[in-house]
Design goal:
42% of the residues lie in helices and 21% in strands. It has 196 residues and is of the alpha+beta class.
């Protein structure tokens, strides 16, 4: 490009227009970068955890994340995980971004509400940051293991954006009890329209 004596901008012919070059560069690389980020974030946002997997904890409390989930966890949160407690006496295992979203909602609950305060106190109070190591393991603290009565044999239950981690014997008892329960008849409105 050059500017002539009248101040007008004139373009030099730099050769034939190349669609391929434009796609590659995309306006100084901006378009290509944004497009790539959008497609990567879509993949990361769709990380869903499902299924039941037997896992074991060693004497130090280390647990290997099943191989099929490791790549999704690495993509979603770079291996940064939060483990906290649940009222059913299991542990909840969240990728960090999903936990942060929930935590923002929890801390906004009214502090004068006794039930809300109890939930925040327990869930946020026990929330522990752990990193997945190069071997795909996380370290579950003694306090969390004691809360969920976790020793060696456990089961990891995918719950969409998180996992539940149960002592295997406790899970089997609870699961059998839930399956044998009679329905109360009261379904939340959100479930009434879902066909199982």
């Amino acid at each position: 490009t050059t500017t002539n004596w009248s101040g007008r901008l004139t373009l030099r012919n730099t050769g034939p227009y190349s669609v391929e070059k434009w796609k590659k560069v995309g306006g100084n690389g901006r378009f290509a970068r944004i497009s790539r980020q959008k497609s990567e974030s879509r993949q990361v946002l769709t990380a869903v955890f499902r299924g039941a997997t037997r896992v074991s904890l060693d004497a130090k409390g280390r647990m290997a994340i099943p191989t099929r989930y490791r790549e999704r966890i690495a993509a979603r949160c770079d291996g940064q995980i939060i483990v906290t407690v649940d009222k059913d006496h299991c542990l909840l295992v969240y990728p960090l971004p999903d936990w942060e979203e929930l935590e923002r909602k929890l801390v906004r609950l009214p502090s004068m509400n006794k039930v809300a305060r109890r939930i925040v106190r327990i869930m946020v109070g026990y929330a522990t940051e752990v990193d997945m190591d190069a071997n795909g393991r996380i370290l579950v603290s003694r306090e969390l293991r004691d809360f969920a009565s976790l020793e060696k044999n456990a089961i990891l239950i995918g719950q969409g954006n998180k996992f539940e981690l149960w002592d295997e014997a406790t899970w089997n008892e609870k699961r059998d009890a839930w399956l044998s329960e009679e329905d109360d008849g009261e379904l939340p409105a959100e479930l009434e329209s879902i066909s199982f």
